[in-house]
Specification:
The complex is a heterotrimer of chains A (251), B (123) and C (328). By secondary structure, chain B is α+β, with helices and mostly antiparallel strands. Chain B has helices spanning 6-9, 53-64, 109-118, and strands at 28-35, 43-50, 72-77. Chain C is globular, with a radius of gyration of 20 Å. The chains are: A mainly alpha (251), B alpha+beta (123), C mainly alpha (328).
């Protein structure tokens, strides 16, 4: 059982760390000062969620410290989806990613509030407000940009197309899927995906854009099993550049 | 660009401003009001640049409520907030004789005591 | 992070000759002398408005440009604590920029005009941000010493006469004290850590020593004075006074860690005044005029950010909206 929960915790923590890291790249160079601040706060929230999840792994499942888990594992040990690994691109991609990813996060934590894994249920309740804001932010920007100028509308539709099959990779199942459902830890990726699809479809259509056609063979799977895009290794090498100068030191 | 910042190396900095920013291209301003506790006044705390009330609230949240406690924020378009002219500040000056507006002006204890003595009231 | 009120000689001369309505000027000066603040809608001398815009605008530019050297290490901070602190700190600098641009806007210059002047090089920002953050230890030194210097300057400026600027600075000083604490924490961890850590910290201190001496501007004997700016509480302390206060507060905090400054002449004399070797004021002038190690990159990145964000702002903008100067 604990392997199943650990797998779930790792994938959530790794997703949060990597997307938080990516989104923090905008800090200082955002499209407007106010939005720079908002996007940076959400990056900090995500990295904080990662830290909280690694802390559960450390305290309840005997794993090493959060810093070791976040900064000193190999690429193959990461369980994040490939979607979060992609470079920030331009703001259209970053906003579409935030919009799609955060709807999934919100529903995931909502489902986990009932989890039989107590620390996870507790965390789910704690982070609910933060993620609610992320969704509100993502929805508002998505809608306004989708309904702005011809350029912004085209950009959002195109970013949505680019992101779509990557985003569906969020719901890649692990070998522990059935066990997690049976034990009441998590309602499962299919349930999550069903609810997510309903939510994002409603917003996308209300904004006057089209949900891209899903081609099963194009879905960007692999991350949940340790097979990552080329970008994760680069990201991890960069992220750990300082700590690797002296791995035994306290930074 | 060969920068020490790996983030900058990933940017296409050839993309550079052609001509300046036009007025309003950073959007209009909204006055922001902050309440830190239920039961307290909602107090002006600054401005944000935004296009709609919804956006102004979302953006104000991270500039004016990312630390400490907040129960709510209000926003109003700058152009929808009205003020007196500052050279008319003298209209707020009240003559010192207007003590009838102050609680300290009303002192009746002496009168009560005198009445009680005169009428030998013992309460 | 920093506002400068250094005048050129020409400006100082012009200020002393500008004519204003004597009655209004007297009331204005009396208000300041009574310790009252000036608010945006008040009458004010044209020169007061101009100098304030210049100072607050430079301060605002310094915040958003200052976010760049520190941003250099955002993706490489070595653990959760440092990563979160650094992102939050750089975010604060952007937030300070937002607050300061807002304060300057109340004086009648739009954010767009200010950003245009920054990008064209017409308007300056603090010189110190034209130096590179070469290693992670530079982040510790910036967080502790550059922010420490900024706090000296900002705390003094927060006693100034212009209401919106004081309000912004009050909040900024509060947030800067978090920057200082996390910077000190970072410095102490490196100083008390492994040899690699200590060496990189010492090298960073050596790199930032001269830019830090430059931070408060040229010595008083070299810079133009303006009695008027002092009287109007736009400038509240001289460059040398601020520099001395900074050295007094922070030199001991580096020395107590067994670290050194690369200047054999740095010492406090019997009158309590810090003495130091000439930090090369020609270099200071060269860098201000665009010839520093990072001037080009800083402006290129700022221009990129504006250009890359253009379509976003355009999509949000409502062409019917009319700009109005914010109230406070």
């Amino acid at each position: 059982m604990s392997n199943a929960i650990k797998d779930l915790l790792f994938k959530m923590a790794d997703d949060a760390l990597i997307i938080g890291h990516r989104n923090s790249e905008w800090t200082g160079i955002g499209p407007m000062l106010e939005e720079d601040l908002a996007f940076s706060s959400m990056a900090q929230d995500k990295i904080g969620h990662a830290q909280a999840l690694y802390t559960i792994l450390h305290e309840s499942f005997g794993e090493p410290s959060p810093d070791q888990l976040g900064f000193l594992r190999t690429e193959a040990a990461f369980r994040c989806c490939r979607f979060v690994e992609q470079p920030i691109g331009e703001y259209d991609f970053s906003i579409v990613r935030q919009f799609l990813f955060d709807h999934a996060e919100y529903i995931r934590y909502d489902l986990l509030a009932q989890s039989t894994c107590k620390p996870l249920a507790l965390l789910a309740k704690k982070v609910k407000g933060e993620i609610k804001y992320h969704v509100l932010h993502g929805d508002t920007f998505f809608k306004q940009l989708a309904q702005g100028t011809e350029e912004s509308k085209a950009r959002m539709q195109s970013a949505l197309r680019e992101a779509w099959h990557q985003a569906l990779g969020i719901f890649e199942k692990s070998e522990f899927e059935e066990e997690l459902i049976a034990q009441g830890v998590f309602a499962g990726e299919d349930e999550l995906k069903k609810r997510w699809l309903a939510k994002v479809t409603a917003v996308v259509e209300a904004a006057g854009l089209q949900i891209p056609e899903t081609i099963e063979s194009k879905i960007d799977f692999g991350g949940r099993r340790g097979y990552h895009s080329e970008y994760l290794k680069q990201l991890l090498d960069e992220m750990t550049e300082v700590v690797r100068l002296d791995i035994n030191a306290e930074w | 660009m060969n920068s020490l910042d790996p983030r900058v190396n990933r940017l296409d900095v050839s993309k550079t401003m052609d001509g300046g920013l036009l007025t309003n291209s950073h959007l209009i301003t909204w006055e922001v009001f902050h309440q830190d506790k239920r039961g307290k006044q909602v107090v002006h705390c600054g401005i944000v640049h935004a296009n709609t009330p919804e956006m102004a609230l979302i953006l104000a949240k991270e500039q004016y409520a990312r630390r400490g406690k907040t129960t709510n924020l209000w926003v109003a378009k700058t152009s929808d907030v009205f003020t007196f002219n500052s050279e008319d500040e003298d209209i707020f000056e009240t003559t010192p004789e207007k003590t009838f507006r102050d609680p300290g002006f009303y002192k009746v204890r002496d009168r009560i005591e005198k009445y009680q003595q005169q009428n030998k009231l013992n309460v | 992070m920093y506002g400068s009120t250094n005048l050129t000689e020409e400006e100082a001369k012009r200020m002393s000759t500008t004519q204003e309505d004597p009655e209004k000027l007297e009331a204005f000066e009396a208000r300041i002398a009574r310790g009252e603040k000036i608010e945006p809608q008040d009458w004010m001398p044209a020169e007061y408005r101009k100098q304030l815009i210049r100072m607050i605008e430079q301060h605002a530019h310094s915040e958003i440009v200052g976010a760049l050297p520190e941003g250099t290490w955002i993706t490489r901070a070595p653990n959760f604590r440092r990563k979160l602190a650094l992102i939050a700190k750089v975010q604060d600098e952007v937030g300070h920029g937002q607050l300061l641009y807002s304060a300057a806007e109340t004086l009648g210059k739009t954010r767009e005009q200010m950003l245009n002047d920054l990008m064209s090089g017409k308007s300056k920002y603090s010189n110190i941000f034209n130096y590179p953050a070469v290693t992670w230890a530079d982040i510790a030194v910036i967080g502790f010493l550059v922010d420490g210097a900024a706090i000296v300057n900002q705390t003094i400026n927060s006693k100034g006469s212009y209401g919106p600027y004081c309000r912004a600075l009050e909040r900024i000083c509060y947030e800067e004290s978090f920057h200082l604490k996390q910077g000190h924490d970072n410095v102490v961890y490196l100083a008390t850590g492994s040899k690699i850590q200590r060496d990189m910290l010492q090298a960073a201190i050596n790199r930032w020593y001269r830019p830090l001496l430059h931070f408060f501007g040229p010595p008083d004997k070299m810079s133009a004075h303006s009695e008027k700016l002092m009287k109007w509480k736009v400038k509240l302390a001289s460059n040398d006074e601020m520099r001395n206060q900074f050295l007094d507060m922070y030199v001991p905090k580096i020395l107590e860690l067994g670290l050194t400054f690369p200047d054999p002449n740095l010492r406090k004399n019997n009158e309590g005044i810090w003495e130091f070797s000439d930090p090369d004021w020609d270099e200071f002038k060269r860098v201000i005029n665009g010839d520093g190690p990072c001037n080009k990159e800083r402006l290129a990145v700022r221009r990129y950010a504006e250009e890359a964000g253009r379509w976003v702002r355009q999509a949000l903008m409502n062409p019917k909206d009319k700009y109005q100067v914010p109230l406070a």
